[in-house]
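In these records, each integer encodes one residue's backbone shape. Here is one protein:

___
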Amino acid sequence: MRWDNLTDGPGAREQAGALFGAASVVTRTFDTPEFRGITFHEVRARSVLNRVPGASRMPFEWTVNPYRGCSHACVYCFARKTHSYLDLDTGIGFDSQIVVKTNAPEVLRRELAAPRWEGSHIAMGTNVDCYQRAEGRYRLMPGIIEALLDRANPFSILTKGTLILRDLPLLRRAAGVTDVGISVSVGFTDTALWRTVEPGTPSPAARLAAVRALTGAGIECGVLMAPVIPFLGDSPEELRATVRAVAESGATSVTPLVLHLRPGAREWFTAWLGAHHPHLVARYERMYAGGSYAPTWYQRQITRQVHELAAEFGIGPSRRGAARRIPASGHPAGPAPAEPVQLSLL
């Protein structure tokens, strides 16, 4: 494995800065059913606050990611490409080689206390899921949330993990002193599709139950209907069933995001598609011939359908970033946009 571009060892890229010491990497495996086949690379991070590039489509400026790689094993995950920076495989390696920043809470606490830090919104779960299976063992999120709580620093969390309910008392305390936004990702309710495309995640029903528990505890929670998968999860019947289930969960909003396929994810998803739905490969090649994103007309169509269904079931759509309570650069919120809301989140 190549750590050179992330450490202060020989060959490290000076312009990037060392994120952890070369001698600080500890590799572990655990012979328990939930972690069988997964290797954990424990590192001591030098920094955990990441600034989002200005050209990004993300509606926030800062992120914290305590893990790299994700056992959710979603075949479409855009973050797969990041594993190539360590010379790790972006397919099965992304699913089974997990980098754990074991000191993330203490480093974040130090960075939040720095005089230059201005208390900006921090988004979590935007690269890989901070409530993936590893969090059950490493328990990094309670310390991270406590650090943010103690500074009354606004933050948001996006997750497919029901483990977030473990931290519900902390989230309630944080919501009492700062702006907290929670979103759960549920792109579809088809269990057969879920078992093959998101094999390491809790079921859609379990995620919606988590939404119900969060909202029942007074924590507003939106649903990112992500991704809407062309030709597999976009039928009128599936869209209707999903929006109905989201509304019944008590979610405060629903925002559709159409599947996008960046390099790294595109190759892995295409291989999966060829194995499970070979008749769709040519259709995907045509749909994504222009790049990583589906055509604008298709995004608009899905957005319109979901918004119409949301209105029918009594749940409002969301403006960009609303479910995560991300400030809209000082501009007042208006009606839901007619244009597709295509964020690079999932």
